[in-house]
Recover the amino acids of this structure.
């Protein structure tokens, strides 16, 4: 029995050694094994580990075994991310930080979208002078830099200030100013950025203040020479003024207000720069009709009385962003009184507002002038300085006079781009310049349409031909996204289209067009009608005498 018992113990011992060898082999193959010891020793067949006949295996044979545990995905260590995944995680972190910062809320100076600028790149690019950081340092604009430094020198000489007064005042608001620009201005170091604001802002203010009384303001008030190449209202001033109205060539208005306030000794003042800007950009107005007496008196009082009265001239009673925004609001200074659209149009407006996507097909206000004339609708000049204030009454479109010159295209393109980019004005009443441009585009399809409006005193231009004017209006809004339901002209267009669809007016217009265009045609029509009446009378009396002969 002892021999048999020892033989069984020996078998258990050999099995234990075999298991140990297998486990060791798995340890070498496994990258990160985790072992746990058994909670008890391997027991003998009789259930004891020592004493009596069962004390046959040595202590070395008492092996601890631990099975291999399968790890769940939640507890298993994650493999090292590849360089590609690390790059993606970094971009996501950057996007999360940018979304949290919400930089778009402060944007006011935008880069014109590529879809808009493909038609005419030159219309959005400064040709003589850069204002602000977006075009700073470009080679073709460096010639004007020395005149900016001269302007700063004149300001410091007149005021007796040190340049650090302006630099130190703008330094705390650097982040706020950077947030106004659409595009990466982070490339510009802090010192260079503040220097750009002071240099360009001072240059702009010198032009505004000197242009108040023509060339006399520069020489008498600001101390410039009458022969100055820039500050003397010479030919260069026209090019400089055109560059200063571009969307990408702006400085925030609060920066200009601060710089002017430091010069005048009132750093907290606001509003004076807006009044100066309106006077400076007045030659760019697309109308030559005199300003209403009430508006002109308010403007002059705001300029002469300073900051307190200047605030009252704000056309829309909201903080203004930059010079282009000031100019746009001065064009719309009276506040629009649009014709209310019918109920059907209001329902369409609500539906399109829910879609939040404007339909390019819904940009046709009215038919062209030639087609309107065939339907009996005529155009007449309306005497007002508000070129956008179009009226319709009893088949007559009353359109204010508009001037077309070499700067008109660039001016309208930048105003339209601003309305397309700035979210705060992309609301009903915030796309008025775009609405007017599309309305005129609908009216004008050919040189004949331009000629008709020119003969009525509505369009005056200094371009090469009427065809160039037609092409100008037809290309203003090529890539503009617009919905006529959000336009101040939507009600007027409904009135015109209803009149256009009325058949009786079309017949009367056709009669006038074919038979009353000249005196000889009128004589022919009258003679024909007279002969027709005589023929009818002769036929009547002949039939009457046949049926009732005389007694």
């Amino acid at each position: 029995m002892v021999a048999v018992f020892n033989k069984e113990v020996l078998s258990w011992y050999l099995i234990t050694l075999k298991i140990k060898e297998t486990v060791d082999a798995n340890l070498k193959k496994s990258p990160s094994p985790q072992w746990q010891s058994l909670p008890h020793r391997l027991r003998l067949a009789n259930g004891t580990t020592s004493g009596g006949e069962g004390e046959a295996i040595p202590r070395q044979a008492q092996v601890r075994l631990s099975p291999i545990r399968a790890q769940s995905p939640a507890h298993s260590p994650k493999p090292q991310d590849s360089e590609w995944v690390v790059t993606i995680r970094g971009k996501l972190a950057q996007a999360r930080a940018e979304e949290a910062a919400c930089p778009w809320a402060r944007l006011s100076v935008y880069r014109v979208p590529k879809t808009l600028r493909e038609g005419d790149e030159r219309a959005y690019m400064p040709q003589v002078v850069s204002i602000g950081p977006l075009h700073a340092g470009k080679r073709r604009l460096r010639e004007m830099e020395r005149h900016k430094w001269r302007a700063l020198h004149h300001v410091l000489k007149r005021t007796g200030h040190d340049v650090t007064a302006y630099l130190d005042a703008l330094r705390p608001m650097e982040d706020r100013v950077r947030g106004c620009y659409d595009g990466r201005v982070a490339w510009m170091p802090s010192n260079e950025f503040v220097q750009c604001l002071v240099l360009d802002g001072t240059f702009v203010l010198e032009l505004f203040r000197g242009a108040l009384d023509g060339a006399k303001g520069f020489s008498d008030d600001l101390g410039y020479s009458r022969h100055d190449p820039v500050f003397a209202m010479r030919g260069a001033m026209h090019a400089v003024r055109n560059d200063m109205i571009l969307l990408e060539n702006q400085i925030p208005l609060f920066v200009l207000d601060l710089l002017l306030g430091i010069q005048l000794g009132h750093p907290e003042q606001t509003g004076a720069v807006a009044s100066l800007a309106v006077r400076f950009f007045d030659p760019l107005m697309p109308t030559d009709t005199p300003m209403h007496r009430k508006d002109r008196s308010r403007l002059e009082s705001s300029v002469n009385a300073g900051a307190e009265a200047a605030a009252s001239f704000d056309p829309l009673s909201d903080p203004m962003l930059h010079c282009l925004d000031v100019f746009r609001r001065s064009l719309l200074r009276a506040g629009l009184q649009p014709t209310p659209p019918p109920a059907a149009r209001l329902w369409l407006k609500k539906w399109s507002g829910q879609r939040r996507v404007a339909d390019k097909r819904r940009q046709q206000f009215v038919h062209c002038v030639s087609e309107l004339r065939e339907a009996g609708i005529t155009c007449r000049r309306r005497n007002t300085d508000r070129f956008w204030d179009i009226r319709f009454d009893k088949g007559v479109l009353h359109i204010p006079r508009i001037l077309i010159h070499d700067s008109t295209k660039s001016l309208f393109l930048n105003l339209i781009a601003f309305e397309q980019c700035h979210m705060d004005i992309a609301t009903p009443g915030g796309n008025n310049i775009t609405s007017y441009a599309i309305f005129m585009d609908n009216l004008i399809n050919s040189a004949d349409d331009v000629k008709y409006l020119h003969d009525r005193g509505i369009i005056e231009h200094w371009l090469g031909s009427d065809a160039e004017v037609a092409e100008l209006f037809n290309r203003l809004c090529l890539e503009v996204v617009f919905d006529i339901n959000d336009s101040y002209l939507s009600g007027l267009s409904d009135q015109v289209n209803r009149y256009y669809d009325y058949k009786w007016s079309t017949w009367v217009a056709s009669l006038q067009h074919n038979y009353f265009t000249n005196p000889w045609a009128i004589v022919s029509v009258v003679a024909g009608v007279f002969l027709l009446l005589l023929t009818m009378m002769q036929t009547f009396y002949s039939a009457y005498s046949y049926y009732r002969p005389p007694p």
